[in-house]
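User: Mind token order:
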Amino acid sequence: MTRVLLVNHDRDVADLQTDSLRRRGYDVTECLGPVGASCPILAGRSCDMAEGVDVLVYDAFVTGEPDGAQRLIEGLREIHPSVPIVLCANGLEPDWMQTAGVHGVTPLVAATNWAQLAASIEQAIATHVA
């Protein structure tokens, strides 16, 4: 069973994504991210929740500000390079998003579509190079 850490600032969307992925057989843990809480990644430390998962699914706007989201994703790539990331951006791709290299992610730039989310997770796992 694929273990997913799902991080989304919108609780309703996170719940829908979690339910959809669980119906497809994924083991999902939710995190609200750094909004309203401290984040070990933004402090330059390892994230216990990111340890032991097969893939991270992040909302591109989880920090509520573009610079914070970029720092968060770059920090995740640097601190947890072996874990692939699917970066979800509903309708607007951040200009800082990278699909290759040290900070590369698998982008999902679309309205929430549960089949596309699952396909992006599988693509991220299959193509990730640490």
Remarks:
- The chain has three helices and five strands.
- The radius of gyration is 13 Å.
